Every structure is written in C-alpha cells, then in structure tokens.
Amino acid sequence: MNQEKPIVHRKGQSLIELLIAIGIFIIVVSGLSFFILDSYVSGRLAREITIANFLAEEGIEAAISIRDNSWDDFVATGTYGLVISGNNWIFQGTEEDVNALLNSGIRKIIVEDLSPSDPDRRKITSHVTWEFTSARIQEVRLVTYLTNWAKPLLPYLAQLHYRWRNDDGGE
Predict the structure, then answer these.
(1) Tens digits of per-residue pLDDT, 48-93?
(2) Which of 116, 170, 111 is nearest to 146 (CA)?
(3) Cα–Cα distance between 126 and 57 in angstroms, integer?
(4) Is residue 119 within 8 Å of residue 72, measured between CB atoms?
(5) How far apart (Å, rounded) are the C-alpha atoms in residues 15 and 21?
(6) For residue 8, what is the DSSP state?
(7) Contacts 24+ apart (CB under 8 A), 80-88
(8) Deepest in the core among 6, 27, 88, 127, taking most CB within 10 A?
(9) Environment class of residue 140 by beta-carbon count within 10 Å: exposed (0-12), middle (13-18) or buried (19+)?
(10) Could you tell me the pTM of the whole model?
C-alpha cells in the first residue's frame, strides 16, 4: 500500500554536502577568531591606557610637589622630563623615557604661562605618548593649573576690593 521510493544516490551529492559543511565551519571559526583577537587587542589597549593615565597623573602630582618645594622652579616655562633626586621630584631634560612600562613610551611635563600679567599661575600639561602598534601611536594628556599659593594675597585682595567697590557705581 504505502510504497517507499528507493533512495537514489547521485554522484557528487556527498561532495557538495562536504563543501557546504566546510564552508560553514570556516565561517564559524573565522568569526570566533576575530572575536578572540579583538578581545585580546582591546584588553591590551585598556591595560596600556591605564598605565599611561597613571603616568600622566603621577606627572601632575610631581609638578605639584615641585611647586610645593619651590615656586621658583616654575619660573622657566618649557617642556621637561622628571627625575627623583634626594627624595624630591625635579625637572630634568625635555622628556622622560618610560619604555619600561610602555612600548616607546615618553612622558613630558609642559609648563606654560597663562598671562604675562599674572606670574603666579601656570598651566601644567602631563603628556604621555607610546606606540601601541607600529602604525598606531596613542597618547594621554592631563591638564591642571597651579598657583603660587605661598605668596601673600594682600595685593590680590586689594585689587578685588577696589573692583568690587567700583563696579557697582562706587561709593
């Protein structure tokens, strides 16, 4: 009653099935390889950015330490490297080699005047660059502003009081 048709084997059918299976396998393995490699690169970049941020923050803290020791060390604007001398940070050279932590890593501390009329304030930039790959240079840059906090404020307070009294029509 119910007749089953015999299975007909065609030549080459197994070969086509094999090629389709291999193609699917290659697509799956390629996708997995991409995700594994991408996660490795992302993890390495995150690690190096963390190290660079630490170095940049340390550069800012070193500049604050130099300022706290002597404001006169901030008189000359320019680009500096950092070294520890006698348990104190000092500016030395134009850049600092941080190759031990980052590939081709360099840290620079840039001291700039904000205004010629205000010699008691400086803009400090801590700049860290390194080579992530030969074609990809990364950088981290942190900026802060420092003042000569040890200088007496009397001249500033006198100016502020004068401006306050004269801005509202005067007394």
Answers:
(1) 999 999 999 999 999 999 998 888 777 678 999 999 998 899 999 9
(2) 111
(3) 7
(4) no
(5) 10
(6) -
(7) 80/108, 80/109, 80/110, 80/111, 81/107, 81/108, 81/109, 82/107, 82/109
(8) 127
(9) buried
(10) 0.71
Tokens of 2: 């119910």
Are the beta carbons of 90 and 123 closer than 8 angstroms? Answer: no
CB distance 134 to 108 below 8 Å: no
For the chain, the 3-state helix, strand and coil shares in percent, each to the nearest 5, are 45, 30, 25
Could you tell me which residues come within 8 angstroms of residue 141 by beta carbon, excluding any fewer than 6 positions away?
Answer: 56, 125, 126, 127, 128
Q: Is 100 exposed, middle or buried (0-12, 13-18, 19+ CB in 10 A)?
A: exposed
